[in-house]
Specification:
Layout: E1 2-5, E2 15-21, E3 28-29, E4 34-39, E5 44-48, E6 53-58, E7 65-67, E8 71-76, H1 79-82, H2 87-96, H3 144-153, H4 171-181, H5 190-205, E9 208-216, H6 226-240, E10 246-249, E11 254-257, E12 263-265, E13 267-269, E14 272-274, E15 277-278, H7 286-301, E16 315-318, E17 338-342, E18 346-352, E19 355-369, H8 375-390
Parallel strand pairs: 12-16, 16-17
Antiparallel strand pairs: 1-8, 2-4, 2-7, 3-6, 4-5, 6-8, 9-19, 10-11, 12-15, 13-14, 17-19, 18-19
Helix pairs in contact: 3-4, 6-7, 6-8
Length: 399
């Protein structure tokens, strides 16, 4: 019997959400067969089986958040070869050998051996000896993180039935108990969890300043593609004022100005906020940008977006005006130094000489990291952005 734990999926990610199991208990799998799909803060990843065998147990349900090193599956590689072995021999063998394991779940298969979990304390603050309760029907054991989480959330851990091996209480069991205790609460997962972490990081690390302006859309037609026009205008502004198409590292106090424009475009979905990246935006023509947006949006809806599509943005666009809103204070995501927000197009009455005229205007908001950009650089950028949007349409970018 071998325990298969969640491997390190890269990018320094410590946790993942189970999106879909592709196997059931009792199924026979082959090496490299996809057994589960998980979603990290970066993308969805198909996890293959590391060896062939029969699925004896799987841990976690779809929607659960699991950490690197946490047990996913128990696979019996030798099930076919050991089916003829007498039960007495198997029992004797199990008494003399302890299967090695690097996970908490693997360590609790034998309660008369070392258990790498925290004990539960009774009301008299006396430790419950796990050896003394090894023969009881359901000993109460929990992972250290689950016990700490229960204390933070005010959940009575003694009333929780663990979903892990031998009724081990896991973090997800505590969250479920808390959800039942206070209806309407939910554990943030996937992109929502990642958004919460990124916003906390930004609020703590970035010296953000927002500047606003509006573009007068004299030359726009009724069927003009707003997002495509914004992408083209951002690309143009980045070449005129490159200071905002940059990364900033506060620890080394270094700034990297990018020649290539990689635009992160915020996409709202039922799963949360995603920001796929249009790499080398300067190489796309108008129709190419629209095809990329449609194709990427479909990938997000099906939760099949690749990891590389969410990486290496040099500047970000949030077109929140497609839903509602005029001006905003968008949040910069480090190491980027700027984000552009586009509001709802609206009518505005203006004076042209002695005449009163109604025109369409597009509200714009740019938040920038004042540690890496000066106010002058930000003002020049938004001026270039406005000039590009106000100019007559001319799609001269090659595909």
């Amino acid at each position: 019997m071998k325990a298969f734990t969640l491997p390190d999926l890269g990018e320094g990610l410590a946790e993942s959400e189970i999106v879909q199991w592709h196997i059931n208990i009792g199924d026979t799998v082959k090496t490299d067969q996809v057994v589960v799909t998980v979603e990290t803060a970066k993308a969805t990843v198909d996890v293959p089986a590391p060896y062939s065998g029969k699925i004896v147990h799987r841990y976690g349900n779809e929607g659960d958040v699991i950490n690197i090193g946490q047990c996913l599956l128990e696979i019996d590689e030798l099930l076919a070869n050991t089916s003829s072995v007498q039960p007495e021999k198997i029992s004797a063998s199990s008494e003399n050998h302890t299967s090695p394991s690097t996970t908490v779940v693997g360590n609790i298969s034998q309660l008369d051996k070392h258990v790498d979990v925290d004990p539960i304390y009774d009301d008299a603050n006396q430790t419950v000896n796990l050896h003394s309760i090894a023969n009881q029907h359901h000993p109460l054991i929990a992972t250290p993180s689950a016990r700490l989480l229960a204390q933070k959330l005010g959940v009575n851990i003694k009333e929780i039935t663990g979903s892990g091996a031998n009724r081990l209480i896991l973090d997800n069991d505590v969250y479920l108990a808390y959800q039942q205790q206070i209806p309407g609460t939910e554990l943030l997962k996937g992109s929502r969890r990642n958004m919460a972490k990124n916003m906390t990081r930004s609020h703590h690390d970035v010296a953000s300043v927002t500047i606003t302006e509006e573009a007068r859309l004299y030359h726009w037609q009724k069927n003009d593609d707003i997002t495509v026009n914004l992408v083209k205008a951002i690309n143009n502004a980045c070449h005129i004022e490159p200071a905002l198409n940059a990364w900033f590292d506060a620890e080394t106090m270094t700034r990297c100005l990018h020649k290539t424009v990689n635009i992160g475009i915020a996409v709202d979905s039922s799963h949360g906020l995603y920001v796929p990246v249009l790499h080398h935006a300067e190489q796309y023509h108008q129709e190419g940008i629209r095809r990329w947006i449609d194709r990427t949006a479909a990938s997000i809806r099906s939760r099949k977006i690749d990891r590389h599509q969410l990486q290496k943005a040099t500047i970000t666009l949030s077109n929140y005006g497609a839903i509602a809103g005029i001006y905003a204070t968008p949040v910069v995501t480090p190491p980027q130094v700027a984000i552009i927000g586009a509001g709802r197009i609206m009518d505005k009455v203006v004076m042209e000489g002695e005449r009163v005229k109604t025109i369409k205007v597009l509200p714009l908001s740019i938040t920038f990291d004042h540690r890496a950009c000066t106010g002058g650089e930000a003002a020049r950028f938004i001026k270039a952005l406005v000039n590009s949007l106000e100019s007559p349409p001319c799609d001269n970018i090659e595909s």
